[in-house]
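Sequence only, no structure available. Ideas?
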Amino acid sequence: MTEGKEGKLSVIKKAASDFPVMDYAEALIHSCVESEILKEIPVVSTGVATIKAYLQYKEGKFKKKVEAFVGAVGEMSSEEWRDFSSILDSKGKKEQFINELLEIIENASSEQKAKVIGGIFRRLVREEIEFDVFEDQVRITNDMLVLHIFNFMHSYHNPFVLQDSLGDVLVPYRMAQRKIEIATRDVSLLGGTKEQYVKTSYELTGIGFAYLATLHQVYRDKIDSTHLYVPNPPDKSVIF
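Reply:
I predicted one. Tokens follow.
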């Protein structure tokens, strides 16, 4: 195992071992199971079995989301982890951040979203984005439907998709700006007759491009190379 991979796994293992909800739940189960009196009560005994089954289900889902998250983070060097740890220490938020990160993974509604969040975290560790951008992109990921995230990832360059519905999805997140203007068009193919109409168009903002860069890092192998977006230089800070 490489030094970088050891660094990555040790951070994840330590974080997972400190996950408080599972600790409290396991303590509750053990206290119930070890009570001989409670075992004699059929309803309580059934309840303990139900709690066990529920926690196994929750733990399984959580593990899958952690695996998706870790997969998106990918290989990071020990130096990158040390630098990031030093940043957290300097801000006095190391323990708080780890706890919040675990909560973010746990609250992700799907493995796909956990994967995207892993990509956002990767960019944060590599100092490609700032903490406020990290928080905003996590919020966007949690709020948007996976369908809309994938649609944006693949069709951001298509004005017809933006005009059809995608643009209206992006505007509330400040990922796109809507432009409304009066335009003219030919009424017939023969020309000569024109009419005015309300033209609506959309343009991606810095916030939109910053999120697009994250998605294209995570799903690079799924993106048409002609439309792969790579910011140059990296969009470390975005004005909100």
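Residues 211 and 220 are 14 Å apart (CA to CA).
Hope that gets you unstuck.
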